[in-house]
Amino acid sequence: MQTILDKLSDPIDISIPLSGKRDNPIAWYIDQPRIEPVKMDDFVGSVASGKSSTNFNNIFFNPHAHGTHTECLGHITEDFFSVNQSLKKYFFSCLLISIKPDKIKEDGVITAGLLKEKIKKNRAEAIVIRTLPNDAEKKCRNYSHTNPPYLTEEAATLLRNMGFEHLLIDLPSVDKEKDEGKLLAHKSFWNVKDVHHVNEDARFYSTITEFVYVPDDVEDGEYLLNLQIASFENDAAPSKPVLYKLT
């Protein structure tokens, strides 16, 4: 028991916190999130204002665009599916790998070939992909109109076939920013063949987590993953993935 507690006392938080500041990461062409006091008549929900005994803030944000979030297949389907209902376990065996995307024309691409070089045999339920170079600007970058790297459909299929149920990546999306709505990597990883009538063998309990950040001093290898989400009945929710060393 003490050995388990010792491991859990050294968490590696790979989430990016949401703030109302200009350095909050942004994607998908919207403005930064806002965190501001409630204002009603003479009331201002801020202790510093002298008009409230408590801090009482509204938060305006989009989970897909403003930081670390976890999504279920409801992100791409006509029917509603909630990530809060899809994610029923919170601890998973996990593999962390670092990959430098291939340059294909103007795109940075994570291919099936690159994944095969890194994953010889899978024993994990979840995978975290850290892209290289791994600059700290990932935590504050505006990704809109920048064509970030992405996974090919074949790469997502490989991860699905290797048994990974949960995919985490340090990019705003597993798909190309402007792909005409094809979303091939999302569809392949979740095995969604028709977004209008979801097939029975779709992966209803698999998740994709985007916008993580893994510091350079965290080595590639096997970890225990604790994947916690805010309890939103929505296709996606803010999340806090935490890694624990196994050795």
From TrEMBL:
Query: By its UniProt entry, which Gene3D superfamilies does this protein fall under?
Result: Putative cyclase (3.50.30.50)
Q: Name the Gene Ontology molecular function terms of this record.
A: arylformamidase activity
Q: Which domain of life is it from?
A: Bacteria
Q: Can you cite a GO biological process for this protein? A: L-tryptophan catabolic process to kynurenine
Q: Which InterPro entries match?
A: KFase/CYL (IPR007325), KFase_sf (IPR037175)
What keywords were assigned to this record? Hydrolase
Keyword Hydrolase listed? The answer is yes
Carries keyword Hydrolase? yes
> Per UniProt, what is one Pfam family of this protein?
Cyclase
Q: What is this protein called?
A: Metal-dependent hydrolase
The species this protein belongs to is Avrilella dinanensis
